[in-house]
Model the fold of this input.
Amino acid sequence: MKKIFQIIAILSLLIFVACCDSPPQPQKKLEQVKLEDLAPAENKLKTVKVLSFANFQILIFEIPADNISKLDEVSKILYLQSIQFNNFNAFSSNSFSTGLGRTGMGDKVLSLLANAGGKRTGTISLLLNNGQEDDVLINRTLGRSELFYTAADSTAQSAILGPGFLALRIKTAKDPVFKGVCNVLMTPVHAPPIAGWTAGDNTPRPANFIFQSCGMSMKMTPGDFIFLRPQKYIDNQLSLGSLFFSRPSKRPVVMSYLIICTGINDQPNLYRKGDTVLIKPNFISPRRRENATQTDPAIIIELAKLLKDYGAKPFVGDSPAWGSTEVCAKILNLTEPLKKLGVPIKQLNQGEICRIGKRGMPIKISSIALDTDVIINLPKFKSHQ
Done:
């Protein structure tokens, strides 16, 4: 065997695609993630330092407005001193209330929310890279409107907002001291829609309005959570707090958000810049994407882009049971996108006899796979029934 290869299962990328079924919100593609210059000095390869993945799950609850006082029972068991506020007085004046929970406290919080008549109305999953930010959709603004809020100097101010959405912006950063710890920044923002805008347009990109006075930061480990809720119900929809939390109707409700850190990966990658990387999808037969029998093409494309950003040399290869790798890729509309990226498609059918085990049992393994530095397996979870 010419090289010992490593098989790395990047199952977390499947979450990225699953997020497409979440409520509409702007998603940053992995292709936008840029690493620092990792050019090797004197032609010596250096180990690539990782993107630190932080996974979050946001549980959305609506609570009858008449029961808002029952949310105080949740706040009583949470920690406030572990959170750093940009300006606590402004945070509170805008009707925001929060607390940090640790591993093991989740069941108690869910029980208290149920006692308050809370109904879970949605779940959003986020996969953030080190230093990356993303927006969680909270509410929409359909036209030009004036929104009032309390600024850092405790004065009442207003912002003229156009069509767009009110969101909670979450940004993560690897802790410089402790492993398995993520520094998290959360800030309310208003972002205009950017559909139809491209970098080549002559018009400026729509600007975000960031409510810095209501920002907060904290350190989180897997299992930690932030509970974000209103202090009171406001039915006018003219203030930041009301638009963020209150939903007027015949039976008015307030929204609350449980933001759970479900995982942190700050371990180093097992490959180096310049390595050849085999992207091994599950190409079973030439079936279209909607048949869901093969690895989804979106995962393959995004992984190829990410590897190119790392400076690796990826290619896609498999040995389907029916048809060829090229035919399977073509039916999934992968051929042209991969060609534009400079990512070849190869058939893994050039067997080389290898001996394994104590008895040296001979088996055939594709020489293409043996000659590559790294193999990334992208399985397709499905039933054969």
